[in-house]
Predict the 3D structure of the following.
Amino acid sequence: MRQLNQGTGWRLGWSPDADRFQGLIGAEDWAIELTQAEFADVCRLTLQLADTMTAMAAELMDEERISCEAESEWVWVEAEGFPQTYELRVIILHDRRAEGTWAAAAVPELLQSMRLMASLPML
């Protein structure tokens, strides 16, 4: 069951039958293939950061920006901007090096798709 979700400025893909790289993350001008562990961590950490950004909204003044990061053995993810509008950046740490950024306009749809994919039994 191959699955590719995409919108303006973002892409998420899952192909459970692939030999090594089952996941895909990307934007308009970049894409990175990921192992199952990397893909699961990107989704998990990104959703954790989204929850943190939402929680921080009550603690900050309207003009205050925030930067939050989360890391696992496989990936590093950062959210940077305002609690309601922020960019996401991801760096792959294990076995090879890769980096990508999603613009703030792409983040709401990306998060929605990650929530759906994170609920799949393979992750």
In short: The chain has one domain: 3-118. The chain has a mean pLDDT of 93. The two ends are 14 Å apart (CA to CA).
